[in-house]
Amino acid sequence: MPEAHQIDIHHVAKLARLALTDEEAKRYESQLNGILTYIDTLTRYDLDGVEPTAHAIPVYDVLRADVPRPGLTQDQALSNAPKRHADQIQIPKVIE
Amino acid sequence: MLASSTIAALRKGITAGDITPRDIVLDVAKSIETRNAEIGAYLSWDVDAALAEADHADITKPLGGIPIAIKDNMNVTGQPCTCGSRILSENYTAPYDAGAIQRLRASGAIPFGRLNMDEFAMGSSTENSALGVTRNPRDLTRVPGGSSGGSAAAVAGDLAIAALGSDTGGSIRQPAALCGCVGIKPTYGRVSRYGLVAFASSLDQIGPVTKTVEDAALLLNHLCGHDAHDSTSLNVEVPDFTASIGRDIKGLRIGLPKEYYIDGIHAGVSASVQAAIRQLESLGAIIEEISLPHTELGVATYYVLAPAEASANLARFDGVRYGHRSSSAGDLMEQYTKSRSEGFGPEVKRRILLGTYMLSSGYYDAYYIRAQKARTLIRNDFTEAFKKVDVILSPTSPTPAHKLGELKDNPLAAYLEDVFTIPVNLAGLPGISLPCGTVEVEGSALPVGLQIIGKALDEATVLRVAHAYEQSR
Lengths: 96, 473
Hints:
Mean pLDDT of chain A: 91
Oligomer: heterodimer
Strand content of chain A: under 5%
Distance between the termini of chain B: 24 Å
Largest sheet of chain B: 11 strands, mixed
CATH class of one domain in chain B: Alpha Beta
CATH superfamily of one domain in chain B: Amidase signature (AS) domain
Helix content of chain A: 25-40%
Number of helices of chain A: 3
Shape of chain B: globular
Number of helices of chain B: 16
Order of helices and strands of chain A: HHHEE
CATH topology of one domain in chain A: Histone, subunit A
Radius of gyration of chain A: 23 Å
Mean pLDDT of chain B: 97
Low-confidence stretches of chain A: none
Largest interface: A-B, 50 and 74 residues
Number of strands of chain A: 2
CATH architecture of one domain in chain A: Orthogonal Bundle
Strand order of the largest sheet of chain A: 1-2
Largest sheet of chain A: 2 strands, antiparallel
Number of strands of chain B: 11
Radius of gyration of chain B: 21 Å
Distance between the termini of chain A: 44 Å
Shape of chain A: flat
């Protein structure tokens, strides 16, 4: 982990699909650098050879019976779409 | 006033024919209409829908005819589900029931009312809600805690009989402590997460917020159980939790982690908790000092894992299938970016940015994997401790309720408030908070919460200790 944190807030915002104003970018950059410095607590412990825990109570290979069952109807599934055209969700044109 | 009553008492009244489900819904509605303007616990409530359900309630069922208020991040068919966010507040109506709601309905309960929360459950004060302020019913100038602040304020203020909350790092227990009611986070996997809008999937868990330990046990009986729609749901037997309460605690071993009893705890909180420890000792419990040596890693570990998981979970809010869509976007990329930027509030953006950074190329091992390793050490601490003791006792929160706005510009200070609740989520354990006295601050008597942590799947012992203490006060 780097010693002093210098997060590239514009790059991260782009990855996160967030548009930040200059004021927001400045504020988040400073706050996140502060939080990352706190998170450096984790580097004070030797974690080599420790197994990572993804879930506290792990369950493995969860399968369900592969049988048809009722689900949402097309109308229900589309009922919250911001823009709808016939039985489809409408979005801005992607391919010219 | 029926709204100030408990599930247990109201069920007796219904069974005896003294009251009807309609009476209860009307009384709760009256209480909301009278007091919600000042407390702000509810974002919405549909009296007509609840009355229609009350009139058809099957009162032979164990929770038959009891209205339960729902945190606004669980889907209930036909109702809003805003998550306290603008991104879902305009035009989202839930098309299905969450797993926990299906179970509530099967037990005869009526989901009634939608409770305010920190946006997407990110926060400890409910001040991060984009949709309104919730005030602590014990002192209206103070926060109710969070993220389930609406749930705790509604129950403590008698605007609800009982409520559901969700807990990712303390979000049921901490507001219950700050408002002076009971809140339990079950073992991870006990209650289905299907239909709970995901914040950090490996930590999120639904649980009851109630006025008494008995009500918590009653509600838990009908929330727990396997759900094929949630692959992390545990397929294990659910005991009758009410059977464990009322038993004495003679000889039961209670551990006090030496790392938890430190400077920085408010003196009044400390005094209340010490008095509770003596009380439990007088009931026959054996008090022992224990060690959870990696406690210091808890908050840092959480603030890697939770934002990382959140940044992935909240990627679904892109303005395409549901939620806010920007009206000024040209192309698809701009639609994603503008919809998200207009829809999410500052704390949600902060955590998405943090999580995105830590999962980005070159940083994944340094942060995410490292935090998962730290999580193993924290979990092992509890495993070792529970070889010596039956439950672990601590304050729920190091401080009583803050004034509204007090921690607004200091996110890190706010994060550190969760120091006693976060490790419980990281280890997946059950934990309850119940009232253990009050502390005088500037003329207000502010509630203090006592946290009891149990072994995985041992909610029964947690409830037994909590009930013994509650009844002895």
